[in-house]
Amino acid sequence: MKRGFGRNPVVDPRGARRYTGQAHAIAARDVHFSWDGVPMHYIPGEPMATHVINVMHLVLPEGERAMSNTLAEALPLITDPRLREEVVGFIGQEATHAASHEGARDHLAKLGLDVEPMARKMEWLVDKVLGNRGLTGKAGHAWLCERLGLFAAMEHYTAVVGEWLLNADQLERLGMHPTMLDLIRWHGAEEVEHRNVAFDAFMHVDGSYARRVRTALLASFTLAVLFLTTAGHLYRKDPTPGKGRFWLWQLLGATRRKVIPNATIFVTEIPKYLRPRFHPSQLGSMDKAVRYLAQSPAANPAR
Is 135 strand, coil or helix? Predict the structure, then answer.
């Protein structure tokens, strides 16, 4: 049976955003963040929750660059013009995400948080594991499909977290610094906005269900390990006195208070993603994402 986005896409009609001339266009936004006055613990009284958000600043920049490079590598194989347009917009958005989180990471380093060792480890991991490895021919194509599958699965999690961030009113009630709150909500909204793209590119270029299962399991395990090790590292390196002991206990407490997403998503989301008729358009609210992007202070400085 033929597979591929351009031939026979399998989508749930509930909320599915198909690629037509009238569809919403994905494009990078010119955003500006000023870090002046953003404290080490920008969620007051919640150092562990703050460092869980900081995981984004350390893990995402290199990963998003690798994802952009992989999608750019796949562009010559994408024959659907609308999907090509979406992939180009996706690449631009991911590059902007990486640069914005790097800015936040540099600010935290200036405040005395030791982020450099973990940042270098991420750079090494992405370069050694997720690069194109100089492969060509059938081996190069197979490795490209494998990376597309991995990134499609990872984008599932970023869309789920993006939806959580858009709905997390408790962050405002806790007094989270508005600049950092805008960064994570702007990023979360764009993750919901482009939630289809990596998945559709994978389905167009390859679409193997066996590869989808394998890469989903690998992506889930990898992200869970990165999340836990990075959050623990940041908490231990936090120089603030009186932050509390036992980072894992602090993590469980922040989860119970619903200040951060539950780490169980790395298990509970797998069955959803692996449903044969799953499509990312079933996730999140596009309307809510677009409404936030229309009012984000960083994306709309004139407002």
Answer: coil
